[in-house]
Amino acid sequence: MHGPTAAPDSVENMFSDVPPEHWAAGTIAWAVEHGVAKGYDDGTFRPNDTVTEAEFLAMLINAHRPPMPGKYQHWADPYYAFAEEMNWPVEGAHEIIKRSVEIPRVRVAEIVAAADGVNDRGDDAIRYLIRKGLAKGKKPGEASVESFAGDDLLTRAEAVAFIRNLKESGLKVLKARPN
């Protein structure tokens, strides 16, 4: 999330570590164009790097709302403030150290379910996303809790692909999670 690069002319010259044939090249270009994610100052996107809770939260919110201006002690403060206001299950709101912890896919499912106004946890959150068409498994053609691989850590390429799928599959407005 740090060190933004300029918007690319095309997928071919966007990032040195994302060749045009990369499975997520088009989605990465979409994410940059829509302000969901940025590259790094060294001209890379680092698609295989894992994502922290704070980074995923920023990407998710940036995909649905304009940037939140202001001065903050930590770059993720406005995202956590919004998540708390919406009653989403985030761990870094009160424990700043948890903002830098890599996020497993099951936690992503819980946050996304919450953003769709549902209070599901664990496998129930994964099932909800699959049932609503908001997520698929990691194995092509197999949408199940097992193929979702909830214990795996989310990569940057997976994060932007996941968020693009959310936008295109119906999560248009971020909602509050019921108690």
Indicate the topology.
Elements: H1 25-33, H2 53-62, H3 77-85, H4 105-115, H5 122-132, H6 145-148, H7 156-169
Structure in words:
This protein is mainly α and 179 residues long. Helix content is 38%, strand content 0%. The chain has helices at 25-33, 53-62, 77-85, 105-115, 122-132, 145-148, 156-169. Helix 4 (105-115) packs across helix 5. It is globular and about 45 Å long.
Features of this protein?
179 residues; single chain; 0% strand; mainly alpha
Short description:
This protein has 179 residues and is mainly α. It has 7 helices and no strands.
Determine the structural class based on helices, strands and strand pairing.
mainly alpha
Mean pLDDT: 89
Helicity, as a percent range: 25-40%
| Biggest sheet details | none
The total strand number stands at 0
The fraction of residues in strands falls at under 5%
Could you list the spans in which at least 5 consecutive residues all have pLDDT below 50?
1-9
How do the SSEs run, as a string of H and E? HHHHHHH
> What is the alpha-carbon Rg in Å?
16 Å
Shape call: globular
Number of helices: 7
C-alpha termini separation: 31 Å
